[in-house]
Design brief:
This protein starts with 5 loop residues before the first strand and ends in a 9-residue tail after the last helix. The strands form three sheets. The chain has a six-stranded mixed sheet, with helices on both faces. It has a four-stranded parallel sheet with strand order 8-7-6-9. Strands 2-1-3 form a three-stranded antiparallel sheet. It has helices at about 40-45, 50, 85-90, 110-125, 140-150, 165-170, 185-195, 210-215, 215-225, 240-255, 275-285, 310-320, 330-345, 350-365, 400-415; strands spanning about 5-10, 15-20, 35, 80-85, 95-100, 130-135, 155-160, 175-180, 200, 235, 265-270, 325, 370-375. It contains 15 helices and 13 strands. Helix content is about 40%, strand content about 15%. Strand 6, helix 5 (about 140-150) and strand 7 (about 155-160) form a beta-alpha-beta unit. The chain folds into two domains: about 5-75 and about 110-210, Rossmann fold (3-Layer(aba) Sandwich), CATH 3.40.50.1100; about 80-110 and about 215-390, Rossmann fold (3-Layer(aba) Sandwich), CATH 3.40.50. Helix 9 (about 215-225) packs across helix 10 (about 240-255), helix 11 packs across helix 12 and helix 13 (about 330-345) crosses helix 14. With about 425 residues, it is of the alpha/beta class. Bound molecules: pyridoxal-5'-phosphate (PLP) and zinc ion. Zinc ion binds next to loops.
């Protein structure tokens, strides 16, 4: 049985082939390099049944991932729940809504565990002993955790103004956390310089072609969990724009290998208004992404002012018949609460962005009200809980006395009676 279908890297711009090394840009035109597979061979080898017989992790789609051998890091990652969200759909005014819930991804509660599982497995195949990243928070958490799980040394570089939980969520693993005075773009720029000097595997710099492919597994899972069909509409949060382009790629790969029928799939992008270079360019009808030098948003995980894949994200959205939206901080907070109150899912700010932008896309008819939509919710709310301070009110404080509790409940009942069928 053939197990390797990943043949080489290729420039997205000029198509020149490159060997499977720790490189990420074309020497001729600086285009990004991308993994290439033998889809004909994959099509002959896999089937829905074969995939279904495998363990419920992202690695059940391993033929579509850029490794030479078996994965060695993050072997339990993925296959998060896709839930039918009837009450959320009603609140958003759409016939059918699903939530792809990567808030419970293993081990660090965001979709970044997918990209890290692939890039660290590849880093080990290539013989690297130190791994690193430039991160807006979640990637740092995942690199630190997954590196610790296999004893790799790690450096994670982050903007200095991140949420406390995201900083602690890296430090706890004993990684070397370096906070940079400046926005993410400066962190990323510094990491490129470091990667040129030190022989380290920077997952989203020199290993980016491998890293990025991990995002496809979110799309494969969505289609399988829908009963092997593509969603007509998918709403995806955008930082660099990579996740969005890779979910679209995963849908196309499933069509090309006969895993799903060829049906239209609109890909919609979601950003925060305080850092909206991609959605802004899309709305203006240009592929020229204007950098946002000073992002100002509570959605720090999405605050990338110069998005590496912005141009490709715009092309993907346009070609698929999708659209892009952005949401203010207030709308993001409303989105977090609406999702929690209607589905029981506590998402971080990026999840609030997805919900808020979905509402706008439905209101404007870009997603038809009689249609069906999948919302990609990519990170857990406990990581950004501080944004809710002062928004949710506080618990009602009483003495440990039944009388005080009775008084509290009767005042509640006066305001909003509990339904009659409730039995105490
Ligand atoms: C990184 C991240 C994204 C999207 O990142 P891309 O750079 O666009 O691939 C979305 N949500 C969360 C929570 C993230 O951490
Ligand atoms: Zn090229």
């Amino acid at each position: 049985m053939q197990t390797e279908f990943f043949s080489h890297l290729r420039c997205r711009e000029c198509g020149r082939p490159y060997p499977k090394e720790a490189i990420h840009v074309c020497e001729w035109d600086f285009g990004p390099l991308e993994a290439v597979y033998d889809y004909e061979a994959i099509r002959r080898q896999i089937s829905r049944k074969r995939i279904e017989s495998r363990a419920p992790t992202m690695w059940r789609y391993r033929e579509f991932l850029p490794l030479d051998g078996e994965p060695s890091v993050g072997t339990q990652v993925g296959f998060t729940p896709l839930i039918r969200a009837e009450r959320l759909a009603k609140a958003l005014g759409v016939r059918e809504a699903y939530v792809k819930n990567d808030t419970v991804n293993y081990p660090t509660l965001s979709f970044k565990d997918r990209v890290v599982a692939v890039s660290l497995s590849r880093a080990k195949e290539m013989g690297f002993t130190v791994v690193a990243c430039a991160s807006t928070g979640n990637l740092a958490n995942s690199v630190a955790a997954n590196a610790a799980s296999v004893g790799l040394e790690s450096y994670v570089l982050i903007p200095a103004d991140l949420e406390t939980s995201k900083v602690m969520g890296s430090l706890v693993y004993g990684t070397r956390v370096v906070a940079i005075r400046g926005p993410y773009d400066k962190v990323n720029r510094l990491c490129s310089e470091i990667a040129g000097k030190y022989q380290w595997a920077f997952v989203n710099v020199n290993l980016r072609p491998y890293y990025a492919e991990g995002s496809k597994t979110m799309g494969f899972e969505i289609a399988e969990q829908l009963g092997w069909r593509l969603p007509a509409h998918t709403v995806i949060p955008m930082a660099s724009g990579s996740l969005l382009t890779k979910i679209a790629k995963s849908y196309q790969e499933m069509i090309d290998t006969d895993l799903v029928e060829k049906t239209p799939f609109a890909i919609h992008g979601a950003q925060a208004t305080g850092c909206n270079p991609i959605s802004d360019a899309f709305r203006k009808g240009t592929e020229l992404v204007q950098p946002v030098p000073k992002p100002q948003t509570i959605a720090k995980s999405l605050a990338i002012g110069t998005p590496a894949d912005g141009y490709y994200a715009i092309q993907t959205i346009a070609k698929s018949g999708g659209a892009a939206e952005d949401a203010s901080d207030e709308e993001i907070l409303d989105g977090i609460r609406l999702l929690a109150e209607t589905t029981g899912i506590f998402a971080e700010t990026a999840g609030g962005v997805t919900v808020a932008c979905s509402r706008k896309l439905i209101d404007s008819g870009k997603i038809p009200k009689e249609g069906s939509v999948v919302l990609c919710v990519t990170g857990h709310g406990l990581k950004t809980a501080e944004v809710l301070a002062g928004v949710l009110g506080s618990p009602r404080l009483i003495d440990p006395s039944l009388r005080e509790f009775d008084r509290l409940v009767s005042s509640d009942l006066a305001k909003a009676p509990i339904p009659e069928e409730t039995n105490f």
